[in-house]
Design a protein that fits this description.
The chain is about 35% helix and about 20% strand. It is of the alpha/beta class and about 425 residues long. It has three domains: about 110 residues, Rossmann fold (3-Layer(aba) Sandwich); about 220 residues, pyruvate-formate lyase- activating enzyme (Alpha-Beta Horseshoe), CATH 3.80.30.20; about 55 residues, Beta Barrel (OB fold (Dihydrolipoamide Acetyltransferase, E2P)), CATH 2.40.50. The mean pLDDT is about 95.
Length: about 425
């Protein structure tokens, strides 16, 4: 059971694959099992709480099951899970060893029937022992781990460690083994922007290598520092790049950005957006925004609101600030009342709906990777990340189809086959 980010999801998929190679029936569905592995998250207090609650949810299926816990929440505090009666706890490092312990447990090795705390020191080099065999239409490929940014509100660098990149040949090897049915690759990591080869920024080099496989390429969340003229121009030369940029903003106020320890100004962020649109006029540009950061005044919030209107994002992911013990922000700044955070969240959410509709109306056509059927519609995402709903008499699952984008609908747009 996986909580949190796409990196966790990739690592869980790798565990499932490793266990299946050993002959076990492994799944990510919540159902009856002899052993449950909870891959936890600690990005917010709520995520950590849900990680603990997952144990109780699984126990309803089998009260006698064995429980293995790993991930960021257990890296932060392993004891909170032993209090829930689990059998094995590890952290961020050494997740693949869980399959070895399950194997020992299945063979009734009595040394593995007592509680084990296997939380380790964070690695300095990329742990390249996780390999996820994926057969979904869209495959997530982990290329990097850890983060050096140390934003004042974020605990993840303390739990995931410093930035470390996966070797390019390892990535290419994994992509070469993907099932034929995989039509799109999403490169993911804790900070994809910081991907390096031999210590030098090399994300464009990696994309150029992967472009030869003929599968759509998409990047997960990135920092505005990645966007240079050279990088953007290089992307236009790729045959399979999807022009969707998830640039993390967090705030449009320079004073708040400084307190957040974000390493750019609102003006620098805007320049990066202008560079993207110079090369990709219809790019989907989505972002994360934190409302109610400690000390955020009404004036600072309005600066963020007006900045977002000025940029014209295609979609916002809005979060209310969550105080995390152990971060700089929790020590230096006083938290704002919940009602103020809620009001600002609602104001941004209302703006988000209008931004999404405006972006959809700018788009006339798209190429959609169809992933599922919802009621009477085939549903998937265009290259620039518009969720499209298509009616068709033929089965479109796992295919890429060209569509005319009609109008806003549900959480995306109605589209018609061309």
């Amino acid at each position: 059971m996986t909580l949190g980010c796409k990196v966790n999801k990739y690592e869980s998929d790798a565990l499932i694959y490793n266990l299946s190679l050993k002959g076990y029936d492994a799944t990510d569905k919540l159902e009856l099992a002899d052993v449950y592995v909870i891959n936890t998250c600690a990005v917010t207090q709520e995520a950590e709480k849900k990680s603990r609650q997952m144990i109780a949810r699984c126990r309803k299926f089998n009260k006698d099951a064995k429980f293995f816990v790993c991930g960021c929440a257990s890296q932060k505090n392993s004891e909170q899970f032993f209090e829930k009666g689990v059998d094995y706890v590890s952290g961020v490092a050494g997740k693949i060893k869980i399959s070895e312990y399950i194997d020992k447990l299945a063979k009734h090795d009595k040394r593995y029937l007592r509680k084990h705390d296997r939380t380790q020191k964070l690695p300095k080099a990329y742990e390249d022992d996780l390999f996820a065999k994926q057969s979904r239409t869209r495959a997530y490929i982990k290329i990097q781990d850890g983060c050096n940014n140390f934003c004042s509100y974020c605990i993840i660098p303390y739990l995931r460690g410093r930035s470390r990149s996966r070797g390019i040949f390892s990535i290419i090897n994994e992509v070469s083994k993907l099932d034929v049915g995989v039509r799109e690759i999403v490169l993911t990591g804790i900070n994809v922007t910081d991907y390096k080869i031999d210590g030098k920024p090399s994300l464009l080099t990696l994309l150029e290598e992967l472009d030869t496989f003929g599968k759509r390429l998409r990047l997960s969340s990135m920092e505005e520092t990645l966007i240079t003229e050279q990088f953007a121009e290089g992307l236009t030369k790729l045959n399979n790049f999807c022009p969707h940029f998830h640039l993390s903003l967090q705030s449009g106020s320079n004073s708040v950005l400084k307190r957040m320890n974000r390493h750019y100004s609102a003006e620098e962020f805007k320049k990066s957006v202008e560079t993207i649109r110079k090369y990709f006029p219809l790019a989907g540009i989505t972002t994360d925004v934190i409302v109610g950061f400690p000390g955020e005044s009404e004036e600072e919030f309005n600066e963020t609101l007006n900045f977002i209107k000025d940029i014209g994002f295609s979609q916002l992911h809005i979060f209310q600030y969550s105080n995390r013990e152990g971060t700089v922000a929790s020590k230096l700044y006083k938290d704002l009342p919940h009602n103020i955070k809620q009001q600002r969240f609602e104001a941004l959410n209302e703006l988000n709906q209008s931004l999404k509709q405006a972006f959809i109306k700018k788009n006339k056509k798209g190429k959609v990777l169809v992933e599922e059927k919802v009621d009477d519609f085939y549903v998937g995402y265009s290259e620039n990340y518009i969720r499209c709903y298509i009616k068709s008499d033929r089965d479109l699952i796992d295919s890429i189809v060209e569509v005319k984008i009609d109008k806003p609908f549900e959480d995306g747009a109605l589209a018609k086959l061309i």
